[in-house]
Specification:
mainly alpha, ABC transporter involved in vitamin B12 uptake, BtuC, 15 helices, transmembrane helix, ABC_transp_permease, cell membrane, LivM-like, Branched-chain amino acid ABC transporter permease
């Protein structure tokens, strides 16, 4: 079992997972399954953004779904209403989410713990109201249709499901790679210190406000990019994209997979999306099954699937290291005893 765990956390496992993702469209029985997986990848990108501010920095942002909607609406407005092509609008979507994230961050991050969460909850609700009521800009409750799909420069048609799947997969791989680099960098360790306690981090000379705002902006860029990809995939957006339920869904994905881990957001998002799809035949009653499963997971695996697995592996590593150390100590004592015995014999 321990050897299997070592294999599952190695570089070979990552390459195998990437290979499976690459060949998934070839193995899928229908195009809808490819669409569902592409949708899961889009949401996973947004969840990775939430993992930065909540998992690494320890700040519960309840407006994350609102920033997702900002990215989607920015791309929708620029392409459908102003005739922009997809990629310039895509860059503008990421920039607009980052700008709004900076403005919200410099105000909200002065608050701590549940006060910050309540403030961002209000921000998310304000975003929803603006999208719903500002009809001149957002078309109100009717939403925006005919959103441009990513253009492939005449080489690829990203309006088709399979090419779009590979496009989203590319963005997801980059998002995970960047998260890995971030977690092992000085900034990542700084964010973990802030998560462990503001007073402790400040005593170490860490600029709390600057690092918190930077983490918040990075998380909103992830959300904006995911929202823009979602708009390009669905080709329609409405005010419901900013619904607080989307934020709670992303928090669930993060908790199930493992908060503060590298692959937790991916495992949690893909797992729950596919479980939800498989229970669709139950319609509104699917939560009768799905709800208790989540409760049991939170009770028995509070660190999530990936977090619990890594915790178990670290314990096994520590036990293995202690066993090796004990063997070395025993061997050393044996050599000392043997040397002393030889010395006594020679003296005799």
């Amino acid at each position: 079992m321990y050897q299997l765990a070592a294999i599952l956390t190695g570089r070979g496992a990552k390459l195998a997972a990437l290979l499976m993702a690459l060949i998934f469209p070839l193995l899928a029985s229908n195009e809808y399954q490819v669409y569902v997986m592409a949708s899961a990848f889009v949401w996973a990108i947004a969840v990775y953004g939430l993992n930065i501010i909540t998992g690494y920095c320890g700040q519960l942002n309840l407006a994350h779904g609102g920033f997702f909607a900002i990215g989607a609406y920015t791309l929708a407005i620029l392409t459908a209403d102003h005739g922009w092509s997809f990629w310039p609008a895509f860059i503008a979507a990421a920039f607009s989410s980052a700008l709004l994230g900076f403005l919200v961050g410099i105000v909200s991050l002065r608050l701590k713990e549940h006060y910050f969460a309540i403030f961002t909850l209000c921000v998310g609700f304000i975003i929803y109201l603006l999208l719903d009521k500002w009809e001149e800009l957002t078309h109100g409750a009717l939403g925006i249709r005919d959103i441009a799909a990513p253009n492939g420069l005449g080489l690829v048609d990203f309006s088709e499901t399979r090419p779009f799947y590979y496009l989203v997969l590319g963005f997801l791989v980059f998002a995970i790679w960047f998260m890995g680099r971030l977690s092992s960098s000085l900034l990542g360790r700084t964010l973990l210190a802030i998560r462990n306690g503001d007073d402790l981090a400040e005593s170490l000379g860490i600029n709390l406000m600057r690092n918190k705002v930077l983490a918040f902006v990075l998380s909103t860029i992830y959300a904006g990019v995911a929202g823009a990809l979602y708009a390009g995939m669905v080709r329609f957006v409405g005010p419901e994209e900013a619904n607080i339920n989307h934020t709670f869904d992303m928090i669930t994905y993060l908790l199930v997979g493992g908060i503060g881990t590298l692959f937790g957001p991916l495992v949690g998002t893909i797992g729950i999306v596919w479980i939800t799809q498989s229970l669709q035949f139950l319609e509104d009653y699917r939560m009768i099954i799905f709800g208790p499963l989540l409760v049991l997971l939170v009770i028995f695996m509070p660190r999530g699937l990936v977090g619990s697995f890594l915790g178990w592996k670290y314990r096994k590593d520590a036990e293995a290291a202690q066993a090796v150390s004990a063997k070395q100590d025993a061997a050393s004592e044996t050599r000392v005893s043997s040397t002393q015995s030889d010395g006594v014999n020679e003296h005799a």
